Amino acid sequence: MVVKEAGGVGMIMVNSDNFGEDLVADAHLIPTAAIGYRGGEAIKSYILSNDNPTATITSRVTKLHIQPSPVLAAFSSRGPNPITPKILKPDFIAPGMDILAGWTGFTVPTGLTEDTRRVKFNIVSGTLMSCPHVSGLAALLKAAHPTWTPTTIKSALMTQFEP
Q: What's the domain of life for this entry (predicted)?
């Protein structure tokens, strides 16, 4: 919002050192390119080393059939918790970053009051997106095995599935 109010027509959003190279898709009011911390440092160095720095952002073609390595999101718990030692670890991890999901027309994609757009889908990240994946699997297991207890279903989810 600040960039738009200042007359900006686009922006490059750079991760902090804490988030490193993990990129999360989120909505913005103006065209935005998100880059990791190292890329941001390189851009900053270039800007500071030139009297008249310029850049061009070109669109890239989507590459199909490329399987990226599994990466745990920066906001995900890895356990054990150094602050609260009683929290050992998560029992599972599930897809929860940059998930294309249905979106109500009553809220805007950015959550900002200045945003007047209405969309049917949005890219969302967080445990609110990983929970439906695991809940759906648990429901399928319960339907296939009606006598299984919640503990049995949890055990099956933890021991019988591979990415």
A: Eukaryota
CB-based contact 15:22 (threshold 8 Å): yes
- Rounded CA separation 26/34 (Å): 9
Q: How many residues are listed for the chain in this entry? A: 163
- Which amino acid would we find at residue 42? A
- The secondary structure of the chain as a DSSP string is -HHHHTT-S-EEEE--TTTTT-------SS-EEEE-HHHHHHHHHHHHH-SS--------PPPPS--PPP---TTS--SS-SS-TT----S-----SSEEEE--TTS-SS--TT-----SEEEE-SHHHHHHHHHHHHHHHHHH-TT--HHHHHHHHHHS---
Between residues 9 and 142, the one the model is more confident about: 142
Contact (CB, 8 A) for 61 and 84: no
Longest dimension (CA), the chain: 72
Q: What is the pLDDT of residues 56-68, one digit of tens each?
A: 777 777 777 877 7
Q: Where are the domains of the chain?
A: 1-66, 77-163
Task: Give the residue carrying structure tokens 């399928």.
Answer: 140
Q: Which residue has the tokens 């997106």?
A: 129
